[in-house]
Amino acid sequence: MMKSAQAPAAAPAPYSLAASLVLSCRLSPEQEAVLEASFQRAKNVDPVEMELLAAEMGVPEGDVQTWFTARLSAWRKEQGLGANLNGLV
């Protein structure tokens, strides 16, 4: 079976820090700003707050959760902290 030739993939567009961590979450700059502001207030957002943020921005709750997970991971790395293993390390 022969594979069809495909054009090479285009280089990804530049994204902000959070969006580059989670390419599957395509958020507008305004949406990212809302999430970043919320992250600066509290690193760990409770499920109710996450649901409200998603509803206000009109995005799936899973995208908000994924964004926060990736952003927290990046923040921990910036701070020189290890992986978030629920305090087991």
Automatic annotation (TrEMBL):
Which keywords are on file for this protein? DNA-binding, Homeobox, Nucleus
Q: Where is the Homeobox domain?
A: 26-78
The feature table lists the DNA-binding region at 28-79
Principal localization?
nucleus
GO CC, one annotated term: nucleus
| SUPFAM superfamilies linked to this entry | Homeodomain-like
What Pfam families would the database entry show? Homeodomain
Single GO term (MF): DNA binding
The cellular location(s) given in this protein's UniProt record come to: Nucleus
Q: Which SMART domains match?
A: HOX (SM00389)
Top-level taxon of origin: Eukaryota
Record protein name field: Homeodomain-only protein
The organism named in the record is Frankliniella occidentalis
Q: Which lineage do the record's taxonomy fields give for this organism? A: Eukaryota, Metazoa, Ecdysozoa, Arthropoda, Hexapoda
